[in-house]
Amino acid sequence: MAAKDVPRILDALKPLYGDGAFPGRSAEGLSPKWPNDPFHVLMATILSQRTRDENTRKASDALFSEFPTVDALASADPERVSALVRPAGFPRQKAKALVECCRVLRDEWGGEVPTGTEDLLTLPMVGRKTAACVRAYAMGIPSVCVDTHVHRISNLMGLVDTKDPNKTEEALMAITPRERWMDINRYLVRHGQEICLPRKPRCERCPVSGHCDHFSSRA
Ligand code: SF4
Q1: Closest by alpha carbon to 111, among 70, 63, 68?
Q2: Same domain, 177 and 213
Q3: What residues line ligand 1, using a CB cutoff of 6 Å?
Q4: In the chain, N or C terminus with fewer CB closer than 10 Å?
Q5: Is residue 32 part of a domain?
Q6: What is the whole-number distance in angstroms between the Cα of residue 54 and the centre of ligand 1?
């Protein structure tokens, strides 16, 4: 498989998607009430797992209105948290993880979110995608955050040939200059939400169809 020109593809998507995606945010930005700091981004990214952005926003708004800090959430009753985050689905599982996560941050990290991937991976419900999103969006550390859209579109286009999102992350990092790593999630998530839809991609409207193996295989 010939390597694709990822920066060129990202450049072609940029005019459509501007600042791009963000866990729990719309194109216009999340609820402007909440800061873009590691605590809020980590909690919102955990809530965003297996749900849609609008549900993440509702759950985040309810959660942060009542528990706006690591300390507050570390001391919260998981049953109460579960009621607040219900819009995001899997409320008991997510509430337990959020409270436990904040207890670890409070007790082991002085109330701060660690910056290292391996340290982040020790937190409940934090996998590589969540760790990369927090590092990229809250800490500004170049990372490739591979969600379902990034994994699916990268394979459809032929940027990578992988079954496992972790392998997609590695493969994308290998073919993309580090300074563009964060653009991958920004633009491919929006592309997956607006044009390269999971069930029926709107290829006729796609500005990167000339780089796409799926498109050329249909011709
Ligand atoms: S051409 Fe179609 S399948 Fe390929 S990236 Fe664009 S919308 Fe997706």
Answers
A1: 70
A2: yes
A3: 153, 156-157, 195-196, 201-203, 206, 208-209, 212, 214-215
A4: C
A5: no
A6: 24
| CA–centroid distance, residue 74 to ligand 1 (Å) | 43
- Please name the residue whose Cα sits nearest to atom 1 of ligand 1: 209
Assign residue 20 a region: left if phi > 0, alpha if psi is -120 to 50, beta otherwise?
left
3-class secondary-structure state, position 200: coil
Ligand 1 centre from 177 Cα, in Å? 22
Higher pLDDT, 212 or 24: 212
Ligand 1 centre to CA of 46 (Å) is 28
Whether 30 is covered by a domain: the verdict is no
Establish if 180 belongs to a structural domain.
yes
User: What domain range includes position 198?
Assistant: 6-22+143-218
Mean pLDDT of 195-219: 95
Q: Using the predicted structure, report yes or no on whether residue 102 has a pLDDT greater than 60.
A: yes
In a domain, 147, yes or no: yes
119 and 45 fall within a common domain: yes
pLDDT (tens digit, 9 = 90+) per residue, 44-81? 999 989 988 889 889 999 999 999 999 999 999 999 99
